[in-house]
């Protein structure tokens, strides 16, 4: 019967140990190559996230040691330090905010907030949403908050944006699933002064 012959052939094929290394290599090599690329991307993503977080802590520590007023040039300077320390290849955005606990309002108050390149910092609505993430402060105590954001692209297929084109016609446009955003939120208490002043000069 056809089924019996088919089962015999499958059984004989399963028991057959003849073959060449070249055939096995052709079958296994793409899988090994895929695993290698996957491990490279995973390692690079963890390294990018780790270095970005460490850079944010370093910037926050620099600010916590300041005793004189800071300005937009200072923010741009620590932004340059952040980009030197992080391994993320795209540009970072940096926002520094100074909050304190008000005895009058019995709540967090925003002293000042600024971003790199003379950015305006966080808005009032963003500050309200931030309050749930802040630690408990004593009356009049200040807190420096450093927020960074960067777009990570893996070293392999970094330029792929999911768009396929046929001439001038775009067939499909989707986000690269290998890309991700790396955001940090770090807060530090000023070490040598109760509050860090902002200078417009």
Please describe what this structure looks like.
With 201 residues, the protein is α+β, with helices and mostly antiparallel strands. The protein has one domain. 39% of the residues lie in helices and 23% in strands. It has helices spanning 2-15, 21-64, 72-85, 124-130, and strands at residues 92-102, 107-115, 142-152, 164-166, 169-172, 180-188. The protein has a 4-stranded antiparallel sheet with strand order 2-1-3-6, covered by helices on one side. The chain has a two-stranded antiparallel sheet with strand order 4-5. Strand 4 (164-166) and strand 5 form a beta hairpin. Helix 2 (21-64) packs antiparallel against helix 3. Residues 162-173 have low confidence and may be disordered.
Please outline the helices and strands:
Elements: H1 2-15, H2 21-64, H3 72-85, E1 92-102, E2 107-115, H4 124-130, E3 142-152, E4 164-166, E5 169-172, E6 180-188
Antiparallel strand pairs: 1-2, 1-3, 3-6, 4-5
Helix pairs in contact: 2-3
Structural descriptors:
201 residues; alpha+beta; 4-stranded antiparallel β-sheet; two-stranded antiparallel ribbon; 4 helices; 6 strands; elongated
Shape: elongated
The overall pLDDT average reads: 85
Low-confidence stretches: 162-173
Radius of gyration over all CA atoms, rounded: 27 Å
Report strand %.
15-25%
Give the spatial strand order of the biggest sheet.
2-1-3-6
Largest sheet: number of strands, sense, barrel closure: 4 strands, antiparallel
Tally of distinct domains: 1
The tally of beta strands, per DSSP, is 6
Please give the count of helices.
4
Q: Cα distance, first to last residue?
A: 95 Å
Q: Which structural class best describes the helix and strand composition?
A: alpha+beta
Topology pattern, helix = H, strand = E: HHHEEHEEEE
The share of residues in helices is 25-40%
């Amino acid at each position: 019967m056809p089924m019996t012959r088919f089962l015999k052939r499958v059984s004989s094929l399963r028991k057959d140990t003849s073959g060449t290394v070249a055939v096995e290599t052709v079958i296994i090599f793409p899988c090994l190559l895929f695993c290698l690329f996957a491990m490279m991307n995973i390692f690079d993503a963890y390294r990018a996230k780790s270095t970005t977080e460490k850079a944010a802590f370093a910037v926050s520590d620099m600010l916590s040691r300041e005793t004189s007023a800071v300005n937009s040039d200072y923010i741009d300077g620590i932004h340059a330090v952040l980009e030197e320390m992080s391994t993320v290849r795209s540009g970072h955005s940096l926002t520094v905010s100074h909050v304190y606990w008000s005895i009058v309002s019995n709540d967090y108050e925003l002293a000042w907030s600024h971003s790199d390149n003379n950015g305006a910092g966080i808005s009032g609505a963003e500050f309200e949403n931030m309050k749930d993430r802040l630690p408990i402060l004593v009356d009049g105590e200040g807190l420096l908050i450093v927020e960074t954001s960067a777009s990570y692209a893996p070293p392999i297929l970094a330029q792929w944006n999911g768009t396929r084109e046929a001439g001038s016609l775009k067939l499909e446009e989707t986000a690269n699933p290998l890309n991700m955003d790396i955001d940090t939120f770090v807060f530090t208490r000023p070490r040598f002064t109760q509050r860090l002043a902002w200078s417009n000069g």
